[in-house]
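Reopening this ticket.

The earlier resolution said the output was attached, but the attachment link was broken on my side. Pasting everything inline this time so it's all in one place.
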Amino acid sequence: MKANFLKIVLPAFAILIAVGLAFATEESNLSYTGYINSPSGPLQIQTDCPDTGSDLCFEGSHQVFNDIGLTDPKRDWQ
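Inline output:
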């Protein structure tokens, strides 16, 4: 009886853990669309700044903006 219980519960528990960990990803892995000022004009880029913090977002030495008009600066995590 104990062996049958373990044969059923152990795989079910492993599946439950696997499904739970599949949804435990960090939000920083997501990419967000932003715009930088390049020599040829505004350029659309993918960035990891979620626009939730208080610090300004930079990609290299370029400040990242939410809009193509480069008027709304994107915020970083901090």
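Reporter confirms the inline version is readable. The CA atoms of residues 21 and 50 lie 22 Å apart. The longest strand covers residues 32-38.
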